[in-house]
Amino acid sequence: MMVKILTSGFPNGFPDDFNRLLKTYINTGMNFVFVASEFENIYEKTDWYCNHFLKMFSDCGIIFSSAKVIDGRISKQTAQDLVRTADVLWLAGGDTPTQFAYLKSYGLIPYILEQKGVIIGMSAGSINMTKTAVCTLTCEHDELKIYEALGLVEFSVEPHFDKNNITEELLVLSEKYPLYGICDNGAIICSEDNSLYIGDVFLIDKGQVIRV
Questions:
Q1: What is the pLDDT of residues 28-38, one digit of tens each?
Q2: Taking a C-beta distance cutoff of 8 angstroms, is the pair 80, 107 a contact?
Q3: Is 205 helix (H, G, I), strand (E, B) or coil?
Q4: Which of 67, 81, 152, 158 is the S-S candidate for 32 at Cβ 3.0 to 4.6 Å?
């Protein structure tokens, strides 16, 4: 059973309620695969972020048996094998369309869709998990881009949502594209039978904003 977890960011580590939820799906000894958002040129930064999140897992008592990074340092075949066999697949933050282009060019999308483990998206990664990626200026993209993404979930998301600063852009977009605004420290967890919300998550739909 694939478990899909869409997040925004955790500036102070995983919150306690998120820790408890992770432990229901992730056990020590599983293998972890970190999919970068930029596959070239920023290897040191990619490794830093991977280790940063591994420490967050460690701090809540989850130790992985192996941790691998997918970026331009490995072959497409190796990347595909890593996705296929991952227990926990982390889709990193960064530039959203750039990450999706790498997922396509490395042939990773079919293997992601066949995953039976836990897929965690953060920021750009969570946008790319959706059926329709809505990359907004509000979320600091260089330009507004909307495209068909992975389709792991049917809804669209706006990470780093600021409930105290709801932009006109989001309200206008919500007339056509309902968005779940995920605040930092918030998450949406989708399994086959239900969806859970942790922290502050808001539905922006037809110009209205409602906490879920």
A1: 999 999 999 99
A2: yes
A3: strand
A4: 67
Calculate the alpha carbon distances from 211 to 4, 20, 121, 202 in Å. 20, 22, 21, 4
Q: Which amino acid is at 16?
A: D
**Nearest CA among 16, 68, 7, 64 for reference residue 197:** 7
- The CA distance from 135 to 119, in Å, is 20
**pLDDT tens-digit readout, 77-104:** 999 999 999 999 999 999 999 999 999 9
3-state helix, strand, coil in the chain (%, to 5): 30, 30, 40
Bridge partners of 156, per DSSP, are: 179
pLDDT at 1 over 90: no
The domains of the chain, with CATH numbers, are 3-211 (3.40.50.880)
Pairing mode, strands 31-35 and 66-70: parallel
Q: Which amino acid is at 180?
A: Y
Q: Which of 53, 113, 62 has the alpha carbon at shortest distance from 84? A: 113
User: Where does the pLDDT of residue 136 fall: very low under 50, low under 70, confident under 90, or very high at 90 and above?
Assistant: very high
For residue 47, what pLDDT band results from cuts at 50, 70 and 90?
A: very high
Question: Which among 139, 150, 153, 143 has a CA at the least distance from the CA of 184?
Answer: 139
- Cβ burial, residue 148 (10 Å; 0-12/13-18/19+): exposed
Confidence of residue 113 (pLDDT cuts 50, 70, 90): very high
What is the C-alpha separation between 156 and 158, in angstroms, rounded?
Answer: 7
